[in-house]
Design brief:
The protein is α+β, with helices and mostly antiparallel strands and 335 residues long. It has eight helices and 15 strands. It has an eight-stranded mixed β-sheet with strand order 4-3-5-6-7-8-9-10, with helices on both faces. A five-stranded mixed β-sheet has the order 12-11-13-15-14, sandwiched between helices. Helix 2 packs antiparallel against helix 3 and helix 5 packs across helix 8. The longest helix has 23 residues. The radius of gyration is 19 Å and the shape is globular.
Length: 335
């Protein structure tokens, strides 16, 4: 069977031996994400036609105006994951606290928790720029048979059993890892199936793209300022190209395919950075490392950071290995 024809479902079954837990559990987890992604994709694609864009009038816990589509995506993912009877808890960017889910037999037998950013980059919806969903999956650490606690969610990124994202763009893709490389699947909207389109995705070790919001330059630490200047110097393959979409999923996806580095450093406005460790940085770091890339806060590997709260923010540098290491070098030398 050629790669072109292999569906996501077939791929999971064929590669289940690489997942160190029950294959049926993994299938259920990825299938529920696939299902919710298809529903959300449908809404995203008609967002220009109906009154689903625009703010819902609420602010989420991060103080950001919620788009109506954010609320919809959040509800759909929570609903789908709950119905599949496989997760015991969900944490979402859109919810103040984690949600504890009892199994259908009412005795908390489920083993997985999911952390999710249901619609990343949602401020871009109304201008038709790609948005995405990011997810991160762990085994619970508290005993099966008891309700989940915060401890189940505050695990280091290196404990993840799976992570991925969906990018809703000109074509809709689901990209994920279970710790055995990264594979990308493209949705064929005519039949509603995802097909393996990007097997074994890898970051080029070097790239020529840097992605950062240069409008915040004045607020950045000196090491990042120095690195940006380095990216702009005329030498060898530099200056690099600046490409910043403002949707983490889209920026990451492009850099993984073309080679590049993504930077969201701390700043005087956001002293801890702005991106969330648990449902943005850790899943992207897991994907990056599985695709021969690298992710850190400039000093410490992202997946080694000790989480202390659900919506914790961290600085984030991620992408092609040599580019991340060069940025880290500038951070160290500026101390």
């Amino acid at each position: 069977m050629s790669h072109k024809k292999q569906t996501l479902g077939e791929f999971i079954i064929e590669n289940q031996s690489s997942f160190k837990y029950s294959s049926g559990e993994l299938s259920s987890l990825i299938n529920s994400i696939r299902l919710a992604a298809k529903v959300v994709n449908h809404e995203v694609n008609k967002a220009g036609l109906v009154d689903i864009i625009g703010a819902a009038g609420d602010m989420n816990v991060q103080g950001e105006d919620q788009q109506k589509l954010d609320v919809y995506a959040n509800e759909k993912f929570i609903q789908t994951l709950t119905n599949r009877n496989i997760v015991c808890g969900i944490a979402s960017e859109e919810e103040d606290d984690f949600i504890s889910i009892n199994s259908q037999d009412e005795n908390h037998q489920n083993k997985y928790i999911v952390l999710i950013d249901p619609l990343d980059g949602s401020s871009n919806i109304d201008v038709n720029v790609s948005v995405g969903t990011i997810f991160s999956i762990y085994r619970r650490v508290t005993p099966v048979g008891t309700p989940v606690t915060l401890e189940d969610f505050l695990q280091k990124g290196r404990e993840q059993v799976a992570a991925g994202y969906v990018v809703y763009g000109t074509s809709t893709m689901l990209v994920y890892t279970t710790g055995d490389g990264v594979n990308g699947f493209t949705l064929n909207p005519a039949i509603g199936s995802f097909y393996l389109s990007h097997p074994d995705m890898q970051f080029p070790e070097n790239g020529t793209i840097y992605s950062v919001n240069e409008g915040n330059y004045i607020h950045f630490p000196q090491g990042i300022k120095n690195y940006i200047k380095y990216c702009q110097e005329e030498e060898n393959d530099r200056p690099y190209t600046s490409r910043y979409i403002g949707s983490l999923v889209s920026d990451f996806h492009r850099n993984m395919i073309k080679g590049g580095v993504y930077l969201y450093p701390q700043s005087s406005k956001n002293p801890n950075g702005k991106l969330r460790l648990l449902y943005e940085c850790n899943p992207m770091a897991f994907l990056a490392e599985q695709a021969n890339g690298k992710a850190s806060d400039g000093f410490v590997r992202t997946m080694d950071v000790e989480p202390t709260e659900l919506h914790q923010r961290v600085p984030f540098i991620c992408g092609s290995k040599n580019m991340v290491e060069k940025a880290e070098e500038f951070m160290r030398n500026a101390k």
